[in-house]
Amino acid sequence: MQDIKGVIFDVDGVLKFRSQVYPGAIQTVDGLREKGFILRFLTNSTLNSRASLATKLNRSGFQVSADEVITASYATAVYLKLLKPRSCWVMVERQGLDEFKEFAQDTQNPEYIVVGDNRSQFDFEHLNQALRLLKKGAKLIAMQSELLDNSMGDLELNVGSWVGLLERASGIPATYIGKPNPFAFELTLQTMQLSRRQVLMVGDRVETDIRGARDFGLHSVLVRTGEFDPAHLDGTARPEFIIDSIQELLNLL
Hints:
The protein is of the alpha/beta class. The protein has helices at 25-34, 50-59, 72-83, 124-135, 159-170, 182-192, 206-216, 249-252, and strands at residues 6-9, 16-17, 20-21, 38-43, 69-71, 88-91, 112-115, 139-142, 148-149, 156-157, 174-176, 199-203, 219-223, 241-243.
């Protein structure tokens, strides 16, 4: 751990959960800054842009710049820029859609269908329209792969569930961007200008945060908060360290 110079935080479940900031979270972030660590905030949120999430964190008492935030919607927009698409249909709501302003939106003949948390628009009409477009040759991109989410209170279907439905029905495999997939980690690491061995991922979900970090070659810490499930520790993606509270991270480092 003496080589660690940067820390990547998951947000929901690590720093806060259901709009409540965890005790010691703000002090931990501030303390790491004072020690000179480079910090990033990597989340699978698709409803937030990096600017809107930074604003929300700052209103909660953190000191975070938008440049330090990587949301799944932002990472997907960066990926799309590399593809230079003719057009796309971006299926996402709220501020997450702000990340895609520069792309030509086409719901009739898009080159790419890009799926985030489309919430009220995941209905019979829109899902069938997406299915037909995929059958006609559109390509499928998923902002992230998580199946379920309860960070807003009640259990909900997450992006991966809706994309999985379209994949199975159309026979078209999706390209996934957010954690645990490598693109999100590669993008975050590029902004830190550190090597993989110098970076620590802190998360509450084994299958996204810890597995993604391990597969990408980052160090990892699992926090027993948020959506942590002890049953997931029976798998192969075990963290290097497990802590009960984000407050313990300063002592670990």
